[in-house]
Amino acid sequence: MQFLMFKFYLLARKSILFHMVFSLPTEVTTVICGRKELKSLVHISGQLDFVKRVICIDNDVPSDASSAQHGWTITSFSDVEKLGRENPVAADLPLSADVAVIMYTSGSTGLPKGVMMTHGNIVSTVSAVMTIIPNIGKNDVYLAYLPMAHILELIAENLLPAVGGSIGYGTPLTLTDTSNKVKKGTKGDASALMPTLMASVPAILDRVRDGVFKKVNAKGGLSKKLFDLAYARRLRAINGSWFGAWGLEKVLWNFFVFKKVQAIMGGRIRYILCGGAPLSADTQRFINICLGAPISQGYGLTETCAGGAFSDFDDTSAGRVGPPIPCSYIKLVDWPEGGYSTTDSPMPRGEIVIGGANVTPGYFKNEEKTRESYKVDERGVRWFYTGDVGRFHADGVLEIIDRKKDIVKLQHGEYVSLGKVEAALLVSPFVDNIMLYADSFQTYTVALVDVSHSALSEWASKQGIAYSDLSELCQKEEAVKEVHASLLKEAKKARLEKFETPAKVKLLSDPWTPETGLVTGALKIKRDIIRKTFQEELSKLYGK
User: Fold this and answer.
1) Which residues contact residue 530 at a Cβ distance below 8 angstroms, ignoring those fewer than 6 apart?
2) Distance CA 202, CA 184 (A)
3) Which of 185, 249, 332, 405 is 20 to 30 Å from the Cα of 541, by its Cα?
């Protein structure tokens, strides 16, 4: 039975396994993949010096993948199953310190690095999270749609089998009934599976929120007025008291107004974990209100096996990531260059440093980076220096406020936190994604905007603006002014300084997807790659 479950797991994740193995040199000797991935494997066979065996899940192996031609042995998965039945062997159980996974970082801030995770690291985080999520068990159903090469997904998919829960596999493009890759009139993954638990990244939740608000605004009339009233009442209740947030009024509004919204995600969601990037307060409140479920923000990194901080399910405050999880220690260290100190008032501030059983051994064949980021103190505790800046509230809850690598100094000495500004501007309805850029020899910032096709097209239609395609619309001065005005509005609401707010913007019509290489699987921007790809556009924004 376990073997059959493993086969299903491979069928569901075979393309992810392929990308995990061959995105960077892990020096593996055995590859498990499908027929489609095997064709790609053939194209790069000259670069694979270590591969000796290929196990193809599909029985129809491509003719051009012959063993003699490429120096590897090809076996079908059915043959491996037969081999296992005919030659049973005792399990070779791993030790806690044995490396279980080499997972590469997203590469959003530079070249990806292979993080070596031990079995002990993974078990530590999984066991810690089991104590945090309320009543998690065999009745829970989890919708898996993030890449398996994302640490949040890896932990989630190890957690559910450990508690006896079920997992259903989907994709971001087939998540809801209205997703791009779902045939009209058929169900999306969430509607078909009706999950109780979800893990997500802010970009996905932002899109769900924007989609709901667009539908409500398009419907207008009495429906919109009732929705706005219900939303305002629920928002006041959540900001007021715990009973008001989840009492009788919640039940009534859910039944009369939010039931249809909850149906988008299957109607049974009881808990959501969000990680990978800061979640905006607006989106957090949307989830609390419209989906009627608590959402916990988690903070961790690949290097800490996703472990770090995790907000309590009954914490309704926005913008915070909770206290340290049971297997982690967290401390702050001074960062004088950024102006952050552990003696700051009213809260200590500094670079976030994580220790504990979940901290990984280091980077695969990269001793220099390992020594730079991992330190062992006089007590023998191993610490990872995250590069993120945080502050501790009086109740012991951590808040992420900055990132060292995102800090750019402008010509007159002002420091700009690129990530902080991007998070504030992402709320604009015209923005699907955005990258702020700051030239140290200039006095202002600029931005590249991956526009929301539906929002910009809808605005143009209302304005009576004629255009042949979205690319032409993005070039029109009226469209640029409208999007820029929306960004200025959000910047003002977020109380950004004038020098932080982009003075000029460039609208881009082609979506930023993992396939284009401009964003990660979790939709985080790859800053260096975007900068190089659009260097000409950035230069023009600065008048060069």
Assistant:
1) 435, 448, 512, 518
2) 26
3) 405
Query: What tens-digit pLDDT sequence spans the chain (544 residues)?
Result: 333 334 444 444 444 444 444 444 678 888 888 888 888 788 888 778 888 888 988 887 777 666 657 778 888 889 899 999 999 999 889 999 999 999 988 765 567 889 999 999 999 999 999 999 989 999 999 999 888 888 989 999 999 999 999 999 998 888 888 777 888 889 999 999 999 999 988 878 887 887 788 788 888 888 899 999 999 888 888 776 544 445 677 788 888 889 988 988 899 999 998 887 777 778 888 888 888 888 888 899 999 999 999 998 888 787 889 999 999 999 999 998 778 999 999 999 999 999 999 999 999 999 999 999 999 999 999 999 999 999 999 999 999 888 887 888 787 778 788 988 998 898 899 998 999 999 888 889 999 999 988 889 989 999 999 898 999 999 999 999 999 999 999 999 988 999 999 999 999 999 898 888 898 777 788 888 899 999 999 999 998 7
Residue 158's closest CA among 307, 23, 374? 307
Q: For the chain, give every residue range classified as CATH 3.30.300.30.
A: 410-541
Q: Are 38 and 54 in contact (CB under 8 A)?
A: yes
Residue range(s) of every CATH 3.40.50 domain in the chain: 142-293
Residue 514, sorted as left (phi over 0), alpha (psi -120 to 50) or beta, turns out to be: alpha
Q: Which fold has domain 142-293?
A: Rossmann fold (3.40.50)
CATH topology of domain 321-404: Luciferase; domain 3 (2.30.38)
Rounded alpha-carbon distances, angstroms, from residue 228 to 234, 249, 385 = 10, 15, 44
pTM of the model: 0.77
Look-up of token digits 């104590």: 131
> H or E stretch including 161?
helix 151-163
